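Holo model, fe (ii) ion. Inputs:
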Amino acid sequence: MTHASIQIIRDEHAALAAMLRSLILMVERGPGDAPEQYFDVLRAMLFYIDELPERLHHPKESELLFPKVAHSAPQIAAVIAQLDKDHQRGEGAVRELQHHLLAWELLGESRRTVFETAARSYVRFYLDHMNLEEREILPAAEQSLTAQEWTELDAAFATNCDPLTGKYPRDPIYDRLFTRIVMMAPAPIGLGSAR
Ligand SMILES: [Fe+2]
Ligand SMILES: [Fe+2]
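Output:
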C-alpha cells in the first residue's frame, strides 16, 4: 500500500509538472496578438510556483522526509544533499524568473530572450529535481522507514497540501488565482488557449 505522504508528494509533483509544461508551451507560442493576457497568465503561474510549491512542498521534504531517510538510508546522503541544495536555490530562481518576465513586459523585446532562456532552464531544473526524488528518495523511504515514522510523516503531510492537485482541502484565498490560471492557460494545466 502506498503511504499517504508518498502519494501527496507524487500528486504535488504531477500538478507542478503540468504547470511547468503549460508554462513552456506558452513560452514556445509567444504572446502573439494578445500580450496582456499572455503576461497575465505567466505572472500568475510564476506567482503560484513561488507561493505554493516553494512554501509548502519543499519544506515538507527538507524538514520532514529527508532527515528520516538520511538517517535510515545513509547511502543516499549525497543525493539528499543535492536535493536540499536545489530547494535552497529554488526560491531565488523563481524570483529571478519573475523579474525577467517583468523586464520583458515593461522594457520590451530586448529582454525577451533572457526570460525565455531562463524559463527553459528553470523548467528543466525543476523536472530533473522531481525525477531524482521519485527515482531515489521515495523508494529508499519505502524500504527503510518504520511504521512509527510513516504515522508521523503522514500526519504532518496531511495538514499542508498543494490545492492544485484537486485532491486535498484547499485554502479559499487561492481560489481566484487558480481560476485565473486554469481558465486562461493551455493544457495540461488549463482549459484556455493563452498564447
Ligand atoms: Fe523537492
Ligand atoms: Fe518534491
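The two ends are 42 Å apart (CA to CA). Helices lie at 4-29, 35-51, 53-72, 77-107, 112-144, 147-158, 175-184.
Archived with the compound record.
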